Fold TetR family transcriptional regulator.
Amino acid sequence: MAKQVVPEEARRRRRPTRQGTVLSERLIVETALRMLREHGSAGLSARRLGAALGADPSTLYRYFDGMDGLTLAIGEELIGRALEGWEATGDWRRDLRELGLHIHGAYLAHPQAAILTASRVTGRPREIAADETVLGILRTAGFPDPEAVLIYHAFIDQSLAFAALDAGALALAETSRTSDEQQWESTYARLPAEQYPHIAATAGLLAARMTRSAYPVALDMLLASAESRLDALRGH
């Protein structure tokens, strides 16, 4: 017999928790985001989450298919936050650039959660809405479907890859992150020009650039390439 799907309202805890709140998927996800921010992924467990919510850990399984289901819900929340405040203008290149920056920013606001979820595919409504939006922008701009899918793939993967990379740096301990950033001045800037002429020639530029995210530059390169492909298709 097929397993019966119970809607959230039917799964919602009837009685308040020990803290006087009524559990919901959103409350659990928001609490999990806070715990990830404060303790990292190693600090997120059903037991600790239940304690933070004032509920028995087993209650969480009425809302999610285990901790992996919660992870997918966290990813869905980050995608949803990326869409908040973004509006299409009809200029496909501008719209994709702003959407990419929104995605990157939403993930970096929760670096520990970004590391945990950037590589996941949730198949949930807000993720689907984001995918539909990107494909819609590209197809409306005139990209044939094979090109639209190719650029969509590069756009989404680039956005999430940089989100994970930059989140990894933000998630480091302050001393480790500072030490990494200082390498450009303490080590690279002092390399002998006779042995490393190209690094020596660009040392000042490297020190100024390498502590910042390359995502905006990479995004502009991707969109410029996409625009060139579109122009070629139109015979320009």
Notes: The domain at 8-64 is CATH 1.10.10.60 (Arc Repressor Mutant, subunit A). The chain has two domains: 8-64, 89-233. The CA atoms of residues 151 and 226 lie 7 Å apart.
